[in-house]
Amino acid sequence: xxxxxxxxxxxxxxxxxxxxxxxxxxxxxxxxxxxxxxxxxxxxxxxxxxxxxxxxxxxxxxxxxxxxxxxxxxxxxxxxxxxxxxxxxxxxxxxxxxxxxxxxxxxxxxxxxxxxxxxxxxxxxxxxxxxxxxxxxxxxxxxxxxxxxxxxxxxxxxxxxxxxxxxxxxxxxxxxxxxxxxxxxxxxxxxxxxxxxxxxxxxxxxxxxxxxxxxxxxxxx
Length: 221
Prior knowledge:
This protein is mainly α. The chain is built from 8 helices and no strands. The protein has helices at residues 10-52, 55-69, 73-83, 89-114, 118-126, 131-161, 173-184, 188-220. Helix 1 (10-52) packs antiparallel against helix 2 (55-69) and helix 4 crosses helix 6. The longest helix is centred in the N-terminal third of the chain and has 43 residues, at 10-52. It is elongated.
């Protein structure tokens, strides 16, 4: 029998688990996936823009990127929430998180592009390849292989930052745990369950990223 005055209650842990898991599947995971897609695509656009755009345009892109990187995600979420009042908080939060992490991924892409051997650039020039063909067929694929581990780490970081969405009224996994605790006066079980789900999901994501990295290394060997 469980005592409500004890540190741990299996009854409360079992009762809290379904709603927390539901929020993981319908909010936390969805935000991470969509946010990662936004970050990966926009980050690549930013990296290419900084490298190929005219200097004034590249300077503006760099200024905006640094501004986003150097301000807290929570501040950006709250600012967007109070400005774009007609946008659903979940949609708005997903976009802001995607933009925030796009600035970090842009730096990863930049490092990957800079790491491409000069001989590859010279070879594309010798073959008279167009700039578009050079980027899509030679440079970007090689840059992606070297940047995959860092990109995966940022995806995991984004996943762990989803609790910040609670500041704009989004009920995600951690907020659901808090709500259960407030309703039943039992916080420990719900918070531990949420933390355990984060741990398992992060470990699985890391293993998947390593496996993909090894597979890419094997295909290019």
